Predict the structure.
Amino acid sequence: MNDVAVKGAVDVAATGSLPAQALIEAGRLARSWSRQADVVTSTFVLPVLLLLMFDLVLGKVLGATGDGDPIYGFVPMIAVAATMYGAMGTGQSLYAERESGLLRRFWVMPIHRSAGLLGRLLAECGRALIATVVVLVLGFVLGLRFEQGVAGALGALAVPVLVIAGFAPVVIACGVSRAGHKVVEVFAIVVLVGMFFNSGFVPLENYPGWLRPVVAAQPMSCAIEAMRGFTLGGPTAVPLLQTAAWSIGLAAAFGALAVRGYRNAARA
């Protein structure tokens, strides 16, 4: 695997511009992830199984409450959770590259210093987009309809990509740390807990009064409401701006840590 990765890095070095090098690095990562069972499972297999389980087991029960078809909450919830949880697998692979010395080998090659991070961010966005397509297609089979037309479908596809743009720096900062594998596992647990405390699982009115503001303000709920608005209809501007604020805030808070940690890991 390392020899293939180094060959890809040589191809990157042969292309002078930063955008071209970032795209080649993103392609290398995508090919690498396709051979890693944990990344494939967390990105594609797990969300499919979860969506089927939620719809088949809880769909009729929650639908009987009169709050509308729960599929319009399940699909955004699984799409956002898959985007975030799938990043954990790529975080583990980043930690493996750090431990194997692969990042150091890249560092000494004539490559733009930011090509590695930019390429990883592009790869994460591409992975999130593909995973969202899979979830939306399965949701359509289960009864989801795009009431807002093509523009709404494109908006729903864009929301998880916006989420991962802010969440990826968090995972990168953790993955390049010395305790990266443990920290990434902790984040995976946090994402799983968040999947059961959001507005897609059950309506906000079903949560205790003291918990509603927390559930409504957490990033998964904001993204879920934005996707619900794009598919079923309803407010989209406010939840979309809230999602963007979360992404920008996380990127600002962890972006510098990710860059510094990546540089230190490459030099170690």
User: Anything to note?
Assistant: The CA atoms of residues 93 and 175 lie 8 Å apart. Residues 17-202+212-267 form one domain. The two ends are 20 Å apart (CA to CA). DSSP finds eleven helices and no strands in the chain.
